[in-house]
Amino acid sequence: MDIESPAKLIELLDRHAYLADEGLATAAFLALRMGRPLFLEGEAGVGKTELAKTLAALLKAPLIRLQCYEGLDAAQALYDWDFARQLLHLKAAEAAGVTDVGRLEGEIYDRRFLIARPLLKAIETQPSVLLVDEIDRADDEFEAFLLEVLSDFTISIPELGTVKATTPPVVVVTSNRTREVHDALKRRCLYHWLEHPSFDREVAILLRRLPACTETLAVQVARAAERLRQADLVKPPGVAETLDWTEALLTLGAKELDPALAAATLGAALKYREDVSNVLGNGLLPHG
Amino acid sequence: MDELVATMTAFARTLRAAGVAADHERTQNLLRVLDHLDVADSGDVYWAGRLTLCATPDDLPRYDRCFAAYFGGERAGVARTSTTSVTRHLAAETRGEADGGDEKTAAPATASRAEVLRHRDVATLTEAERAEVHRMLAMLRCGRERRRSRRFEGAHRGVLDPRRTIRDALRKGDVARLRHKRHTTRPRAVVLFVDVSGSMAPYAESLLRFAHALVRSEPRATEVYSVGTRLTPVTAELRHRDPGTALNEVSKAIPDWSGGTRLGEELKEYLSRYSARGAIAVIASDGWERGDPALLGAQMARLARQAHRVIWVNPHKGYEGYQPLTGGMRAALPYVDDLVAGHSLAAYERLSERLAHA
């Protein structure tokens, strides 16, 4: 797909109900155009993962997701051998009286016994969107390894040879910034810090994503969200939460955000008990 | 085009001067990116630079300032509001409450002399008592938490090692036995900062002796810096087997004994040159910061993001009713995982215990 400018990408993303601003659109445009990974940082719920999903939908490419966690290693990220099937094959060969070790070896390290994990899958699938989600949760050893893969989109499998992507996948790396990610990895990528959306944009997003939502309700929810983000909360609501919240309100048939309804549905926006009691106790919700 | 290269390189230089890590490689990235954008459009240039030259949210306000200054302010409106406000330096007003504490540790009548000494504040000891405590410190054995490394080694138990099992099977023509493997481990690194400023004088020597014990037990996984008015690495000096010699070397290496404390600046220097990634960071200080507490807070936040755990050792914490009121302490506290005492041998033993099971 030929996307000639960031403005064009804004339009295409909009068609998939993702409202991007100029910065994010420029970042994504360059990532697509130059085949460079996009490193998205920002608080949880600002739409980092959603962008990857939307890009995949827009490019009609499969989204391949690698969720990071501490202790994630190469076998879980790249590939693994299907050990059980390899052994079965050996047993069968043995029963059939095959003793040629060279031949057995060739058979066992065949592509059909290889299990592709997300990184290998992304390199083999073209086109594809690879989402490396929450890299800040993986340990630093994994970063070094990821850097290697993202540098030349090549994976070498000792028993099989090298797999190289003819066109590199679109890569989105996200981080919630619970720790500093190594500079070398960021340097490979385009770096974008995603903010909570502005008031106007948030209203637009609510209206765009939830057609049943009235303008009045969207404005009220966005205003409330803005106030909640300024309050000293453990986890301020992101766009994902305001969407959930509005959906909850709509489900209850709300046309406007009154204090009783707001209090009843607050759990959709806030995910910590302290935050809920803080907000209710300090009268941070709209009054009448 | 040459003019563009010159302009952008100079812009990157301006950013570097402002503290953004816009190195050569990042500048090259910027030039590559500009090939795909409209260089006459200041919006495109703004984003091209921001996406390639910045690497942390802290960079963004600096970037915006430099961009405005350099390209004439068209984009000044984009500047993020900085959240750091200038905090008043509180140290002078809040000092003094922790000192007056009486020695309350009531020793049971049957306890040995050593047991009593273990709990005494090292600042209140006589020369002879102090020497004895130091001897006990030298004998302190410091274990260390081991973290799993990515490497595997063969083992009798553990997860199956398919690679070796299959290789074995091929060699012997039969799946004779299953091979296993498990992760090897390595000690978790500790980075210790010892405050040697004036207010810490009664404790600095004991803390450095404790540092010596740490270095001696895990020489390759321990780093020690003295802090005060400047950051001095003293790990090499502490590697001497004999604690007396080691301490002597350390005292020669440290130029700023008994000065003030500029912990914020020193941590900043540490973080820009080294890394505490995955390590346990230990700061031994009373938190009487002379510098800007807001700076200290920001550096502590960086440190906390890098380090596995941040432990603050405060000698005054050993006293009942201690409140972390000094400006430095208050700025640092949100980023500290454990605030522990550091005034007696028993406190050092507990700290060592904590490092072994962090």
UniProtKB/TrEMBL annotation, chain A:
One Pfam family name is AAA_5
Extract the InterPro entries matched here. AAA+_ATPase, ATPase_dyneun-rel_AAA, CbbQ/NirQ/NorQ/GpvN, P-loop_NTPase
TM stretches of this protein = none
**Which CDD domains does its entry note?**
AAA
Q: Which residues form the AAA+ ATPase domain?
A: 34-209
Top-level taxon of the source organism: Bacteria
- Indicate what this protein is called per its UniProt record: MoxR-like ATPase
Record organism? Nonomuraea angiospora
TrEMBL record, chain B:
Instruction: Tell me where on the tree of life, at the top rank, the source sits.
Output: Bacteria
Q: Where is the composition biased (Basic and acidic residues)?
A: 92-105
Query: Looking at the record, which segments are called Disordered?
Result: 92-111
Please name the CDD domains in this protein's record: vWFA
The record, for InterPro entries, names:
UCP010256 (IPR011195), Uncharacterised_CoxE (IPR008912), vWFA_dom_sf (IPR036465)
Which PANTHER family does the UniProt record give? BLL5662 PROTEIN, BLL5662 PROTEIN-RELATED
Query: Can you name this protein?
Result: Uncharacterized protein with von Willebrand factor type A (VWA) domain
Organism of this sequence: Nonomuraea angiospora
